[in-house]
Amino acid sequence: MAQQDGQNGDSAKAAAAVTFTAVNPQLLVEAPRANEAVQFYKVAFGAVETGRTTQPKRKAEQELPHIISAQLQLAGSTIIVSDLSDDSAPEKSLASGISLVLVTEDVEAAIAKAVAAGAVAEGEIVEGDGAYYGGAERVGKVKDPYGFVWVIASLAKKSTADVEA
Q1: Domain boundaries of the chain, sorted by first residue
Q2: Which of 44, 106, 131, 156 could be a cystine partner for 114, CB 3.0 to 4.6 Å?
Q3: Do 83 and 66 contact (CB within 8 A), yes or no?
Q4: Superfamily of domain 94-157
Q5: Residue 30 and residue 86: Cα distance in Å, rounded?
Q6: What gap in Å lies between CA 55 and CA 36, rounded to an integer?
Q7: Residue pLDDT, tens place only, 25-65
């Protein structure tokens, strides 16, 4: 029973041992495109770069230092963007069950801005019951130039009756 509790996370000992303070998604892009990706996320989504780790030139033909990782602030979250090179990171897995969701009041404007920066709109904006993101009123999607799909959602506004209840 104690072994099962530990595996399921029910053990008080296991719960007290580790505390997480954040989840920071890391987006791995084909080397040497991390710098390009950082610029895209700044223009398309208004991300702010808060840190960068670089490696000196790895090859004589490279002009810029190789980005190991860049930290971006986006909608109150930290996202790490890194170059994926043959010798530096685990195998890349694109869109394997991960959704990157941005919440905004203006889905059309957000999609238009991302498309203007180089993303591709995926399908139509869905409203009402078809807007599958929890509590969303409208949902659209864009695929960025690095293969990641971003869900752009506006949450349903609560009516006065909902707030008073």
Answers
A1: 24-56+63-90, 94-157
A2: 44
A3: yes
A4: 2,3-Dihydroxybiphenyl 1,2-Dioxygenase, domain 1 (3.10.180.10)
A5: 10
A6: 16
A7: 989 888 888 899 999 999 999 999 999 888 766 555 555 56
